[in-house]
TrEMBL record:
<keyword id="KW-1015">Disulfide bond</keyword>
<keyword id="KW-0186">Copper</keyword>
<dbReference type="GO" id="GO:0046872">
    <property type="term" value="F:metal ion binding"/>
</dbReference>
<dbReference type="InterPro" id="IPR008972">
    <property type="entry name" value="Cupredoxin"/>
</dbReference>
<feature type="domain" description="Phytocyanin">
    <location>
        <begin position="26"/>
        <end position="125"/>
    </location>
</feature>
<dbReference type="InterPro" id="IPR003245">
    <property type="entry name" value="Phytocyanin_dom"/>
</dbReference>
<feature type="region of interest" description="Disordered">
    <location>
        <begin position="1"/>
        <end position="21"/>
    </location>
</feature>
<dbReference type="Pfam" id="PF02298">
    <property type="entry name" value="Cu_bind_like"/>
</dbReference>
<dbReference type="GO" id="GO:0005886">
    <property type="term" value="C:plasma membrane"/>
</dbReference>
<dbReference type="InterPro" id="IPR028871">
    <property type="entry name" value="BlueCu_1_BS"/>
</dbReference>
<protein>
    <recommendedName>
        <fullName>Plantacyanin</fullName>
    </recommendedName>
</protein>
<feature type="compositionally biased region" description="Low complexity">
    <location>
        <begin position="10"/>
        <end position="19"/>
    </location>
</feature>
<dbReference type="InterPro" id="IPR039391">
    <property type="entry name" value="Phytocyanin-like"/>
</dbReference>
<keyword id="KW-0479">Metal-binding</keyword>
<dbReference type="GO" id="GO:0009055">
    <property type="term" value="F:electron transfer activity"/>
</dbReference>
Length: 125
């Protein structure tokens, strides 16, 4: 299942998955209650959300089975964590990422998980 890169330009969004972090910034729990795991529709989760520089994505997951790799566009498309050292790979099970402007790509680096849909592409304005 392909997860589209979504471009959000609107300035307001309300969702039970968001909580204010500071004035003007919002914290999003990726996947809501399900968290960062397999069998979650992350394209559906992204729908209707607005992301701005300074917003925070929180990845909550079982670190025995998953991780979060912040990858290049090529890594996202090919489901690979390369080139090594491009960006961080998180393995704590509860990781908060502050988003700068631009398009950012996240995958699970465990073999087979990204190709099964554990991937997220977010464009931040």
């Amino acid at each position: 299942m392909a997860v589209p890169v979504l471009n959000f330009q609107t300035s307001s969004s309300s969702s039970t998955s968001t909580t204010p972090r500071t004035a003007g910034a919002t914290t999003y729990l990726v996947g809501d209650a399900a968290g960062w795991t397999r069998n979650v529709d992350y394209g559906g989760w992204l729908a209707g959300k607005t992301f701005r520089a300074g917003d925070v994505l929180v990845f909550k997951y079982n670190s025995t089975f998953h991780d979060v790799a912040w990858v290049s566009k090529g890594g996202y498309k090919k489901c690979t964590v390369s080139p090594k050292g491009f960006a961080p790979v998180y393995r704590n099970g509860y990781d908060a990422v502050t988003l700068p402007r631009g398009t950012h790509y996240f995958i699970c680096g465990v073999p087979g998980h990204c190709s099964a849909g554990m991937k997220l592409a977010v464009t931040v304005y």
